[in-house]
Every structure is written in C-alpha cells, then in structure tokens.
Amino acid sequence: MKKKLKLFILFAAFASSSSAWAQFSVVNTPGGSSGSGGGTTVQSAPQTDVSVTTLPSTRETCSTANRVSLQMLRSLMVSPGDYNISMVQGQTRKLKVQIPAHYGDCLNIRFQYQVVDNNIQVTAANDKSYDEYTSCLKSKGILSADGSKFDASKATISEASFEYIDLPSFDASKNIEAFFMSPNPNPTNGNYGAAFPSGWLASADTCSKRESLQEGGASVYLSPESEAADRAFRACNSLDYEQILRELERLDASTLGNASLLRNVLQGALDTARAQRATEIYTRFDEIEAQFKPSADDIAAGRKVGVSEDEAIRLSNEYATLLSELNDVVISPSISEIDTLIQEHGQTTSRSRQTEIQDRLKSLNEAVGAYAKRSSRGLRDLYKGLEEFALIDQAEKIEGFRLKSEAFSRVYVGRPDARRGEQISVERANKFVTDRMETFMTQVVQDWDDSYRVRNLDRAPLTSSQRRVSQAYERVNRNWQRYEKGEQDQMKKYCGRNFIGGVSNPVRCQQFQRGAEGRRRRAMSTRERDLKNLRRRGEHYSSLSNQYEASVERFESERGSTYDDMDIYSNYGDDYSYLYGDSYSSGSYSSYDMGGMSMGMGNPMGSLRSPAGMQQFGQQSQMMPYSPMMGQNPYGMQQQQMMYQQPGQFMQQGGQQMMYQQPGMMQGQGGISPYYMMGN
User: Fold this and answer.
1) What residues make up the domain containing 437?
2) What's the total number of domains in the chain?
3) Which among 235, 294, 518, 539 is placed 20 to 30 Å from 446, CA to CA?
4) Does 635 have pLDDT greater than 80?
C-alpha cells in the first residue's frame, strides 16, 4: 500500500511539471536573429511558480531561399579568379569590389558587406528564390528540364562591374581578409557545397558557412609587419638577388617589430641567390678562358692564343659584361657591407656582436676574393689574349675588378688570418687598386698596344719606345744627382767651417752624419727601382724592334701576291713603300737590339748603355743605324754621361766640374761605387 502511494506522488509531480513547459506563446521579434539569414523567433513564456527555475530560450529559423552561395556564384562567372576585394588608398580608404562578367539571366544579385573582427564578410542574395530562379532559366531554355544541364550558348553575359564601399575605421596593426558567407546548404538554395577543396571555415553565424573569397585566402589589407613578411617571402622564393637586396634595404627596425627576423631570413636568401648566380657566371668564365688557351696545333703554328682576333673581341666583351654583373651581384655589395661592418665593429662594445661581425667578414672576404684567386688558372690564358690583340678597354675593366677582388679580400678585423693575407684597411685597399691601375693603364697596356701596332707595321711605337728609354735613363741620373746635391748642400750647411775654423753647427752636423747611412739606403732603393725600369724599357724596345723586323719580312714575302697579283708593276720599280714606310731593309732595324743591356740584380750597372743614337738628351732623337764595325751600340753614351762614377771623382755637370764626397767618409779615403755594393 505504501509503495503504491509513493508511485502516485511521483506521477503527480511529473504531470505538474509537464504542464508548466507546455504553456508557450509565439512572439515575432524583428531583428532578433543573430545571423544574416533572417526568419522568426519562438520564445517561452515566463513562469510565476517560484518552485521551478524557468530557462528562457530562443529559436532561430534561417531564411536562405534567396541567398546565393559562393560555389553557385563562381559557376556563373566567366573568370571567377577575378572576383576579389581590394583597398583603394586615398584620403579616405575605400573597398573596391571587382565583380567579373557572369551569366546574368534571371539573376539580380545584391551584395552586402560587413566588418566583423577586422575582416570583411560578404553575403549575396537574388531577388528570386532558388526555385524561382531555376524555373526562369528553364522557361528560357537555358536550363534543361531536369535541371542538370546549363546551356551557356543561350545565356546572356553581364559585363564586369565594380562596387566601391566606404571602409570604417579599423585596426591597422592587423590584417584584413575577405570572406564569403554562403547559406547552409539545403534543397531550397540549391544545396551547394564549399567552393574550394579546403572546405568551410569556422563561423559564429549559424545560418551561414564562412569561406575565403579566393582559394588560399583573399587579403584586403596587410599590416606593415605582414606586408614586409609577404614581400620577403616572395623575394626569397624568386632567388632574385636584386629583389632580395631591395627588400633588405627597405626593412626599418623602428617601425617593424619583425625586422630582425626578416633581415636574417632575407640575408640568408641573398647569400644563396648570390652564390647561385656567381656559380653560373664562374662556369661561363671557365668556358671562355678555356677557348683562349692555345692548343697543340696553335703552338706548333706559332700562335700564342687559341682564338682569332674577332673571337677574342667577342669573348672578352662577353667576359667583361659578366664580370660587371658579378661585381653588381657579389663584389660591390660585399665591399659595402664590409665597410659598414668594420665601422660597427669599432663602435660596438658587445663581444658577441664583434664575433658575429668577424665571422661575417670572413664569409664576405671569401666571396669577394674568389675571382682574384683565378689568376693561377685560366685567367692567365685570357690575359695573353688581351695582350696579343691589345684589347685595352676590356683589359681595363677586367684588371680593375681583379684588383678590387684581391684588395678587399684582405679587409677585415680581428685575429690575423694567413689564408686571407695581410690585414689591410679600406683606405689601403682603395689606394692599392688606384696605384696598380695607374701602372697598368700607363705602362702595361701601353706596351701591349705598342706590340700590336708594330706587328701591324706601325713604326710610331718604336719612336715613342725609344723616347721612353731615354726618359728612363734621364730619371736614373736625375734622381741620383738630386740625392748627391742634397747631401753636399746639407754637409756644407751643417758641417762646414766657420770663420774661426770650427764646425758651423756641431749638433746638426752629428745628426746629419748619423742619418747618412739611412738616406743612402733609400737613395739606393730608388736607384734600383729606376734601373729596373730602364732595363724593362730597353727590353721592350728591343722586343718591338724584333717584332717589327719579323712583320716587315712577313709582309715583304706576301706583298707580291697581295698588291701585284697580275705582276704588272714589279718591273717598274714600284716597291709600295708608300703603304708601309720608306725602307724595310732588315739591316736598318737590327740596330735596336737591346741584348747588350745587362742590368741584373747581381751586377746592375755592369753593362748599362744609353739610349740609341742619343747625343746630348733633347738635342737629337732621330734613330741612327747601327753597324758592329762602328764600335758602338745604339745605347752608347758619351763618357762624361756615365752615371756610375766613383764617389770622390769629378762629374761633368752643366759645363762645370763638381766634386762629390761620399757621406760618412773623409776626403781622400775613397770608397767603392754604391751600385756595386747593391750588387754585392
């Protein structure tokens, strides 16, 4: 009986609770929908029974019959990839929506735009429901009766259009993306799925599916950090060193929080791009240099270069162009960075940063110096070709880059590194390049040009070379005489006797005497350099003479067939001298042999001769024929012109005799010539 009573009580309580939830009324609440689908809302009525807690609830009914999904929209567009939203920069920022051309029959789409969480959300609706839309297409014969085939040939294409939307204020430190809000798929709206394989994205709108406007994302606005990262990403993928370098230069640590990270990424990509392009250029260098190397047949035929003159010009021009690119890609940027890093190294107090700079400098030195290290390989064959055909313009560019590569590979800080060579400063590197290039352009390539011209029967280089020999000879005498005169004047000034018989200035005289040996060594060093230059000039003149003589002989052996194929003029004494000079007797040019000019370091003045045919310098520069029977040589000089007389002997100068006493020796002690001492 008690058990039955308990069951009755429980049943009564349950029945009372159910009747309370069954009491509800329907209330239309316009605008109560949280989604963009619209519809009606059902809300429970409040309860007055204090023993029961009432839970209010809402019901949302999505209205999507007129909504258009992104997949449907893209299927109607001629070029769906052109559908995008961009930001128009100006005094007031606007959104520009590009709507591509599409099949517009029975379609009147209205777009709505919202800013949600700093992003743009787009919804689209037709003025017809989906059923009305398909019925309209069927009535026009565009859509098959079963709705499975759309006949585009019967459809009308609407032109592309643009919409401009005022953009409200937004957070510029965040990116803005465009998303399309497609209706939840069901038969009333065509039951379309996601437009892209990536599917739908998470959305707070229960009546819509969110998806990107374009596959992979549709960026409308990028924050400064994201924009810099996007540019860096594209630059790195391109492996275009110029583009990467531009992005590196654009980085601003004061405005970009990710500047340091991006700099490291871009620097790594830049090094990779440089190395890749440099490898391609070096490969082509190898190919060009190999063509200049003479083959066995070339050597047997007396040719010094493996290419013709036309080929040498073409290949050396290509080589110089590639070298300019290598300079732009590797050498110049690396040198600029070297200069910047060395300055930073001197200013920073961070040991870790100094170590980073030293490591970076080592990498840059290797990159810069890679070209100069080619000197021991094919670069020598290339230079032989430049010399053979006197390709001065190409040689100037190539040698300039080679010197730059050599000099700046030794500009670094930190511990000395024997593999990089002596540590030098940026200033010393610049001076090294400048001085060497001056010598190269004023002497080396000048000799190349002389040789090329005489081999082509131009006698002018013989005259200019003879003049340079004379100038070198005069320089030897002039420098030594300046030293002697300076010593004599100083000796007289400080160590001369005054009116009472004492030394004029004992203190300065002692200082002068103590420094005599050092001054003499410096003078001898200058003398040695001048003699070396004189010997080189003499050897060059002799070489030109020999080359000219060989060219004349070759031309004479060929000129009959070259200028008188019909053998008409030879019997009339026409020797064609107007074509190549007055006389080509081989005996006339044998006088310029420099073989007797021996100025080796072991005996630098043992057989020094004066310039050919010179009677006092400046008085006669005409070349004079030489005959062994005359007892002289083309570099013979008057005895009083000899520049290596013993100290203590009289020397002829300006028509007067001048006595020279060697510094540090008392008169009458004698002494040997400093030229022989240099040899010893």
Assistant:
1) 293-455
2) 4
3) 294
4) no
